């Protein structure tokens, strides 16, 4: 009974220091309502899980928050800055980086090159400094290369650095995505199904890496269908159903909550 | 006023041609998933096919709407030829490709050039005409409404209407049409539902190219025949498809009507004192297309199928 | 290791270099044997170099950034017309401006149009950009064809000076020009040869400058973002890159290079007319880029050479044997077949880009052996 009360009906929004705050997000496609008054808050330093049956609107919510869809209503704030309706790159600049469910492998690039795209505001991303201050570009590039190598070694794929990115396995690609996201030095990483199609051994490793990074101060919001993975890793868990937040609470309590069980058993009603 | 009626009448004829072209382009876009830059030259192939056939059947007796019956037979021959060539191209060139829609798009430019070069090689680059004497405007319309419309114009509009009507019947009333709509809507879902999508794609090439050929024949009949007519009109056809909304056959029809009308109403701008010559008619169609893309990327017809 | 070693050439590169060298030797033999006029050979080499510029320009857009620009001919034409309208004595608007100043006029015109075309189209899907850019290029051609009062219309522009016409020394040479050392005449050259040489030096400088410029930006973080956009624009956005700005920069830079080719063309051929803006020019350049190797600057240069080989080869063939098909359809057929075959058989082209492109100085001495 006491466990039940831990589960909040709907989202918990009055968190002390939210990195990400989405309020009343609405999105319709034609006549179809994809998200309806969806609100979530992600507390700084947490690993927050986002689950829900197929068609609950999880990916739509990600796309709304990261700027790929323009919301029909509602507000998104990242680190206290209102980013509603902003371009994805402007939202990324506020410190929120996302990954994709099915990442495309970068063609004609080695793994470390792919990582080098990560860092923000590189001097060498503008044309003029390439000719006026090549030494700054060189210094930054050297530092990025070192960081990329460190990051790859940390994720135990250092030996892949100079491999073509197209040769990676699905699981390795997920690690590279995480590493590249980290190169951008985010406050918050949005991971969209990080262990989908990944073998259990690698999934375990990935969970370990995420916990490590979290201890170093990175906040995570993770969509995942693999229940044992997300229940082990995340706290709190937010459950989305039919386009809005059904409940939010600690994993054990959410797991045994009847509303959640009903939502999953009800299956995809759309 | 009579002037406006005249422009509208011209617009109707030109729209008929654009609509025939845009349906096929839209079908390929939705089912085969690429912008087919060879579609204009498929129109040209049909026009030349009919030209050759008219040499054989032109002498057939009887006439309909001021055109000898042999012309209609030749029209069908041109349509069949274009359909056959399109199917062959699909099987020999597009299908074996392991590439994305951009690779297909680029390949279709190569296909367009091969079609056109072949026609130039066989027929030369001179202007040709179907050997049919032009009759003057229909006296009744000229006297009562002061509008010059030839029987030939009427024949084009009526033939196009018959073809488009048949397509509508096919799409709405037959099993094949239902399968085509399902495949255009969601190819993967259609495949798992047991539809032989590879066959549907072939049928789509046949229908799209046959209609394009008819458009090409009428274009040649309306003005004249040379190896560049199809590529010349391709951009206007693209404009129609995009304005109508890619992947929607009915959208393409609507877009064709709109773009065709705008194209022929261009002189009106000069009449009201805006100094834009008729040479800019395709340019105006084009600017409208870009504007539509920016405001409504899915086209004016949106989700209609 | 070898992929990073700038000095090493692959067997394929050596093969291509050997082939080009062989053709060069054959052409020189043809000149010595009197079959080929030296001035004409110089003209052909200059023309190849001009197509190299066009190909390098398109490579920035399509090869680096995946932008399907079908308005190559328009930017080429704007460079050509911009320069011609300023320098030609038959120009309906200005004329008789120094070619060096006109060069910047042509480039400015192209930059303005690039922004005008790019702004609405670079936000669209890839294939829409293809259609829209081809259409807008046609608008430019129709404009030049119809606005006689500004462009001289279908007649085209004549009376264009050579690029060096008003330069000190180079503009005042007397012909045939006698080379002498200490008062002793060594040999002399006729005007066409001198002009051909000067043009070649000019375009050679353009090609070298553009190549060095591109080499640097291609290997830079800027180039890396563009290459990321090519495979996955959304990914680049999520990493905080303003993809529209990057695409616009690539579009303008590529267009400027194409316009530079146009400016050179004007002073090479000394006549420009609306057919120079036909879409076929655009697709010649596309063949050059995909044949050479999408994304590869060396490939683009090889492709530029190939275009002239196709153009001259078909002409030569038509003169030599009685073909059932004229040179123009034959060329069109060849271009068409090449496009189909490349996409089918070798989509990466003959000289695909190097495997890894990282700022070279940052790689030095980081224990990579």
TrEMBL record, chain A:
BP term (GO), one: amino acid transport
Keywords assigned by UniProt, alphabetized: Amino-acid transport, ATP-binding, Nucleotide-binding, Transport
Domain of life: Archaea
Record domain ABC transporter: where: 20-267
Family listed: Belongs to the ABC transporter superfamily.
Function: Probable component of a branched-chain amino-acid transport system.
Name this polypeptide is given: Probable branched-chain amino acid transport ATP-binding protein LivG
TrEMBL record, chain B:
TM annotation in the entry: 12-32, 44-65, 71-94, 101-123, 154-171, 200-223, 229-260, 272-295
Major location category of this protein: membrane
InterPro entries xref list: ABC_transp_permease, BCAA_transport_permease
Pfam families reported for this sequence: BPD_transp_2
Membrane topology: Multi-pass membrane protein
Family of the protein in this entry: Belongs to the binding-protein-dependent transport system permease family. LivHM subfamily.
Entry protein name: Branched-chain amino acid ABC transporter permease
TrEMBL record, chain C:
Predominant location: membrane
Keyword Cell membrane among record annotations: yes
Keyword line: Cell membrane, Membrane, Transmembrane, Transmembrane helix
Gene Ontology CC, one term: plasma membrane
CDD domains tied to this protein: TM_PBP1_LivM_like (cd06581)
Topology relative to the membrane: Multi-pass membrane protein
A family per Pfam: BPD_transp_2
Compartmental location: Cell membrane
UniProt GO MF annotations: branched-chain amino acid transmembrane transporter activity
Descriptive protein name: Branched-chain amino acid ABC transporter permease
Native source organism of the sequence: Haloarcula salina
């Amino acid at each position: 009974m006491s466990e039940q009360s831990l589960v909040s009906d709907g989202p918990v929004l009055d968190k002390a220091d939210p990195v990400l705050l989405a309020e009343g997000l609405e999105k319709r496609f034609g006549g179809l309502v994809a998200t309806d008054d969806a609100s979530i808050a992600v507390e700084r330093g947490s690993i927050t899980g986002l689950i829900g049956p197929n068609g609950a609107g999880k990916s739509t919510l990600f796309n709304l928050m990261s700027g790929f869809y323009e919301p029909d209503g509602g507000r998104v704030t990242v680190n206290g800055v209102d980013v509603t309706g902003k371009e994805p790159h402007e939202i990324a600049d506020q410190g929120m980086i996302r990954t994709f469910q099915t990442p495309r492998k970068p063609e004609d690039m080695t793994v470390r090159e792919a990582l080098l795209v990560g860092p923000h505001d590189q001097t060498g991303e503008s044309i003029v400094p390439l000719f006026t201050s090549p030494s700054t570009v060189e210094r930054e590039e050297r530092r990025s290369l070192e960081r990329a190598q460190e990051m790859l070694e940390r994720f135990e794929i250092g030996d892949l650095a100079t491999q073509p990115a197209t040769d990676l396995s699905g699981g390795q690609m997920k690690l590279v995505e995480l590493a590249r996201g980290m190169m951008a030095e985010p406050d918050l990483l949005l991971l969209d199904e990080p262990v989908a199609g990944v073998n259990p051994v690698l999934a375990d490793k990935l969970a370990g890496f995420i916990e490590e990074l979290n201890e170093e101060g990175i906040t995570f919001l993770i969509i995942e269908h693999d229940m044992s993975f997300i229940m082990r890793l995340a706290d709190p868990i937010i459950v989305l159903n039919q386009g809005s937040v059904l409940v939010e609470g600690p994993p054990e309590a959410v797991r045994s909550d009847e509303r959640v069980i009903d939502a999953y058993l009800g299956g995809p009603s759309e | 006023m009579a002037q406006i009626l005249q422009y509208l009448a011209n617009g109707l004829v030109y729209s008929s041609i654009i609509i025939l072209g845009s349906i096929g382009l839209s079908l390929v876009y939705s089912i085969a998933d690429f912008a087919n830059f060879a579609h204009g030259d498929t129109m040209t192939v049909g026009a030349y096919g009919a030209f050759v056939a008219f040499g054989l059947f032109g002498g057939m007796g009887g006439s309909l709407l001021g055109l000898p019956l042999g012309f209609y037979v030749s029209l069908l021959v041109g349509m069949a030829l274009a359909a056959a060539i399109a199917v062959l191209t699909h099987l020999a060139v597009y299908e074996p490709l392991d590439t994305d829609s951009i690779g297909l798009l680029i390949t279709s430019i190569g296909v367009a050039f091969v079609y056109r070069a072949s026609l130039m090689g066989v027929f030369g680059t001179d202007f040709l005409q179907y050997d049919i004497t032009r009759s003057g405007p229909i006296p009744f319309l000229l006297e009562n409404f002061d509008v010059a419309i030839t029987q030939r114009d009427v024949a084009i509009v009526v033939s196009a209407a018959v073809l488009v009507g048949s397509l509508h019947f096919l799409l709405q009333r037959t099993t094949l049409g239902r399968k085509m709509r399902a495949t255009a809507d969601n190819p993967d879902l259609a495949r798992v539902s047991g539809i032989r999508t590879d066959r549907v794609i072939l049928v789509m090439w046949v229908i799209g190219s046959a209609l394009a050929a008819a458009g090409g024949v009428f274009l040649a009949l309306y003005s004249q025949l040379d190896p560049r007519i199809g590529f010349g009109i391709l951009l206007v056809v693209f404009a129609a498809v995009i304005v109508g909304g890619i992947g929607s056959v009915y959208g393409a029809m609507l877009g064709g009507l709109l773009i065709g009308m705008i194209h022929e109403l261009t002189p009106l701008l000069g009449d009201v004192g805006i100094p834009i010559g008729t040479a800019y008619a395709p340019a105006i169609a084009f600017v409208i297309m870009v504007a539509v893309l920016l405001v409504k990327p899915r086209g004016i017809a949106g989700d209609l199928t | 290791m070898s992929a990073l070693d700038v000095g090493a050439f692959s067997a394929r590169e050596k093969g291509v270099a050997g082939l080009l060298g062989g053709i060069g030797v054959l052409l020189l033999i043809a000149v010595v044997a009197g079959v080929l006029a030296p001035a004409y050979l110089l003209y052909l080499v200059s023309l190849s170099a001009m197509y190299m510029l066009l190909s390098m320009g398109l490579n920035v857009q399509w090869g680096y950034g995946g932008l399907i620009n079908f308005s190559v001919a328009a930017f080429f034409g704007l460079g050509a017309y911009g320069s011609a309208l300023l320098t030609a004595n038959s120009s309906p608007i200005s004329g008789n401006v120094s070619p060096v100043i006109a060069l910047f006029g042509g480039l400015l015109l192209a930059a303005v149009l690039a922004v005008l075309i790019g702004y609405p189209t670079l936000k669209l899907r890839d294939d829409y950009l293809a259609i829209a850019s081809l259409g807008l290029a046609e608008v430019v051609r129709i404009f030049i064809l119809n606005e006689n009062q500004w462009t001289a219309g279908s007649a085209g522009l004549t009376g264009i000076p050579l690029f060096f016409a008003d330069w000190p020394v180079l503009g005042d040479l007397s012909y045939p020009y006698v080379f002498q050392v200490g008062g002793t005449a060594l040999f002399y050259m006729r005007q066409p040869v001198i002009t051909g040489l000067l043009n070649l030096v000019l375009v050679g400088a353009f090609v070298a400058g553009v190549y060095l410029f591109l080499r640097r930006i291609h290997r830079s973080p800027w180039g890396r973002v563009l290459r990321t956009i090519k495979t996955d624009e959304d990914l680049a956005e999520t990493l905080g890159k303003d993809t529209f700005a990057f695409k616009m920069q690539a579009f303008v830079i590529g267009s400027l290079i194409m316009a530079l080719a146009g400016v050179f063309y004007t002073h090479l051929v000394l006549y420009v007319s609306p057919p120079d803006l036909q879409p076929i020019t655009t697709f010649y350049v596309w063949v050059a880029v995909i044949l050479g190797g999408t994304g590869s600057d060396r490939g683009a240069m090889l492709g530029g050479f190939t275009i002239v080989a196709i153009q001259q080869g078909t002409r030569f063939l038509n003169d030599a044997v009685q073909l059932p098909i004229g040179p123009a359809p034959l060329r069109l057929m060849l271009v068409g077949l090449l496009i189909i075959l490349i996409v089918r058989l070798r989509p990466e082209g003959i000289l695909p880009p190097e495997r890894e492109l990282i700022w070279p100085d940052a790689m030095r001495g980081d224990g990579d052996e």
